[in-house]
Specification:
Layout: H1 2-18, H2 38-65
Main location: mitochondrion
Membrane topology: Single-pass membrane protein
Family: Belongs to the cytochrome c oxidase VIIc family.
Amino acid sequence: MFARAANITRTGMANLVRYSHSHGGIPGENLPFSLTNRYKLTAMFIVFFGSGLGAPFFILRHQLLKK
């Protein structure tokens, strides 16, 4: 039973790798953003992490200013 599940998993992963259209070996190829523009990448990181770290403070401010 376990051998059959392992075989199905192995063939499924092989098909996933085979048909993923990835050439491999290129750093950052599988990322959803470009690494070529340094300033745009820096701005996107600031927005991404700033929104996650700042959200609790904005939510708290909103709750405290409600009537």
